[in-house]
Amino acid sequence: MEIEVKKTGDVCLISLKGDLNIYNTPNFINELSSLFKSYNKIALDVGKVAEIDTAGLQTMIAAKKEALLNNKVFKIVNHSPSVIRLIDLLGLVGFFGDKIKIPTEDRNKYSLKYGIKKQNVLPSLNMDEL
């Protein structure tokens, strides 16, 4: 996997190319740890991630949690189909909270549940009817 880092002011853009999996997440974790020490805003471009496994996803989850705990910003941008598929499958779209752009013709491939609104599934009861 290739990792490209662009720094602009207090924002850091990390672009990944290739597979984000158990074999290369250690290098990615080291890079992220270093960047979190220097930047308050990090954007992760996963548009060129061909395949992602649960190790890659766990790294992204850990980065999001790290940012939240330390009042930093961590955004995922330019989602590739493999990344969308995995976060959609595991119901993590709402956890990450990032905008996902999907071509209209591909929208039926994903459920993309951002969160389920609480619904009252029980019918209303009128106490006078009891």
Characterize this entry briefly.
With 130 residues, the chain is α/β, with parallel strands linked by helices.
Strand order of the biggest β-sheet: 1-2-3-4
Shape type: globular
Question: What is the percentage of strand-forming residues?
Answer: 25-35%
Which runs of at least 5 residues are low in confidence (pLDDT < 50)? 115-127
Work out the radius of gyration.
Answer: 18 Å
Give me the CATH superfamily.
STAS domain
Number of helices: 4
Helix content: 25-40%
What letter string, H or E per element, gives the SSE order? EEHEHEHH
Would you tell me the overall average pLDDT? 86
**Biggest beta sheet attributes:** 4 strands, mixed
Domain module count? 1
Counting copies of identical and different chains, the oligomeric state is single chain
| Class inferred from helices and paired strands | alpha/beta
Q: Which fold does the CATH topology refer to?
A: Transcription Regulator spoIIAA
Q: What is the CATH architecture annotation? A: 2-Layer Sandwich
Distance between the termini: 66 Å
**CATH class (first level) name:** Alpha Beta
Number of strands: 4
